[in-house]
Amino acid sequence: MTDSIFDSGEIEKLAEIYSRAREGLGESTSTLDGWQRRVESLGDLGSRTFKIAVAGTVKSGKTTLVNTLLGDDLLKRGAGIVTSVVTRVRGNHTLDALIKLKGWGEINREASDAALFVGFVTDEGETFDLRSESMRGRLSEYISSLGEEFLGDDGTYEKHAALLLAMLDGYDRVASLITHDGGELTYSGDDFHRHKEFSGDDSMAVFVEDLSLRIPDFPLKGDTEIADCQGYDSPNPRHRERVQQYLIDSHLIVYVVSSRVGLRDADLRFLKDIERLGLIKQTLFVLNVDLSEYEAASEVEGARARLARELRPFIEVPEIIALSALRALLKKLDGAGAKLTKKERLLLALWDEEDALPSGGFDDFSGLLSVRVGERREDELAGLVRSTLSKAAEVLRLRLKNLQKFGGSRGEALEAGLDSMSDAREIIARSFKTFEGALTSRAQTIKTQTYSRVTGKFHPSGGSIANEVMAYVGTMKPSIASIDFSQKEKLFAKLAGVQQKVREEFHRYKVETINPMAVETIREIWGDVTEEMDAAAHDSASLVIEAVEGYRSLAMDLGIEVGEMELPELEASIGKKKVPLFSAVTVPAAEASAKHLISFASHWSVKMATGWAAKLLSKRDTDSGSDQLVSKGVETARELIAEEARSALLHYNEHVKYQLLGKNIDELLSSWIENYRETLDVLTGEVDSILNALDASREELSRRGPIIEELLSELDAAGY
Q1: Residues near 597 by beta carbon (within 8 Å), at least 6 away in sequence
Q2: Distance between CA 68 and CA 328 in Å, rounded?
Q3: What's the predicted TM-score (pTM) here?
Q4: Lowest pLDDT segment from 13-17, 112-116, 322-326
Q5: Mapping DSSP to helix (H, G, I), strand (E, B) and coil, where does residue 578 land?
């Protein structure tokens, strides 16, 4: 692999040449200061954080793979399914773990939502607050009394009851660390390992908002971050939403598939999501092999081939590396002198003896990952960097040659042509004003058209995506098991649980369906916008180019070399601001939750007061009455969610138009104009530079000669 443009030293070399020209030639190069700053700033592009997301279903081996890459058992393996912590790791000179805890508002919102699912409601006028010892006691007692309907097939509590139990179990250990807005913890040195208490134990992890690790000897070059994205198959749609947001921000995705189960429904959902999010081509697949299943390397290759066939509907030629993350980790730990358990040593000895996996599986992965990091960074920025370096070198070369060419004997001829040059510069200035006005006007038209396209997709008054959302809300039928309404005093709690289940179904729909659809739509619109802006800039530049050609002709008649007018290139990140997820840009969750509960309570209080619900339950066929209550509960919840959906669509529509696309168009416009202005300043500044040179003394001109020769030689040697 060749060195990255950012590691080759080319940027630093040209910046040094510019600096020496500025020091040695003084005012003769002052008009090139903008190019010098641009060259010096190119290195900052390479230092942008390159993000790698390691994703997959629960127990697929994601954390083990990350630990192996890091060379140590730094991340806790085996976290549960009711939490979702994206653990981010990057390089640092010291070993630090930074933990951000959720605030009490977020914690109470999650807990109160879960409580409603299991039928626990607060007393009239009481606010749900987990900090209340009395409420925690009542909630614990209530969960203990739940019947079999809250047990899953494996005999464990369903996710909402499990979440509440985890919060209650971890409360005493965490409560003192949490403030209203959250809390931050830092573990360094010998205490670093304590972060595992928060990432591997559900009763602690439920209180974590963000976990970031900083480690020495980070294995990847540059400013790179790798993130362990817990369980994409989490039953909580908010967990998938959090992973989706990191995936959108990432440059490379490593998706881990366990050989024990192959592609499952959750994997297929992930693949469909990243395909629609436009991320499938930047995904590297890892088949994490359970060595107890295989006796020969050929069997492992067969499993890899099967996975390739299963992936083909999503990507024609997927990149798949087969390896055993656990074997690779144990070998690394053993090689570093770490103490392995007896079981781990026996497993490692057995695997080394059988050698079921082709050697170098993990080494192949590590090497390919390094290549991909370099390639992706190159793909995004190298073209722009090389173009800028080439242009900057050519601008400096022209200046040096002109300074070399002119001496006192050419002064009179140059002075005689100044009037014509001045007129030509005025023509360039007027043509640039025309260009600026035309491009600004065209940008406004493009913005208006873009706003109209967004409205046609997301506005609740008739946008195509909005229509799909509202149609779904009006017909959604979440799976709700039969509910026992025999305890009349718990009637409202049971119905509130129905309402919560309908709301969760809608949130799942937002994450699984609307998020990919929205991101796909916005990226398509933005792609069209950038093409139209590019065409508008080039079309509007014709008068400027013509004026520059006239100026160049006059300059060359006087013996001054002036570069050709080259249309500028824009920095690659312009217009690539974070695309918002629909599920995240909505009515604030806590506000919506409270609003819905109040509306729901008001609705059903009237019905219960009139005896309507009691009449249904007093029917001879009580099952029929219960079914009707559930049906009415779902219908009421749909009405309330439809109101939230309309508000969310309107908010998202406005956000995408004005905060995302509108601002991006303004930034594109500003960048085009500024790039053209800088290009013209350099072209028309050549005559000023020569005039300044002619004012120099004979001694000064004599001193500059060797400096100019040396700088030109260095430009040639550097290949510019």
Answers
A1: 116, 496, 499
A2: 6
A3: 0.73
A4: 112-116
A5: coil
